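Handoff note, outgoing to incoming analyst
You'll be picking up this chain. Sequence as last confirmed:
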Amino acid sequence: MLSNNSGIVQELFISVKNKDGENRDEIILQTQGVCEDEFFDKEINRSVLLTSIDSYKLAKENNIDIKYGSLGENILMDINPYHLNIGDRISVADVILEITQNCTICNSLAKVDAKLPTLLKSDRGIFAKTLKGGVIKKGDIVRFVSKRKNNEENI
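Most recent structure output, in case you need it:
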């Protein structure tokens, strides 16, 4: 981890219908979401899921061993974003994301382990929408760049 406000992209995934997340070395984001993702251009405020490796560590500490991508994330990072608020912004390479909501727990996590939905209730991830698109690669730096104030643009 670089600092309290920056980290590194560890893994990248796209969602593929009826399959586990497909691991990628890079993903392309547009304002409609992650290109090639099954949720592209569906629900913009839930188009990018950010997850911390802390979620996987929490599962492992509770004897649940799951592989990266199992939580449905698009971007897995070594910095924990769960304290961010709606409207906060993150930059990764040239991409600018805006936090839109906390990730809700879905019942599909119970298929992995019955304890997982309760365990990760507040620690599964956060959703963001893409304000400025571009390419994100494994190893890119993630920065918490601004807090939105009174609907003003800070970027």
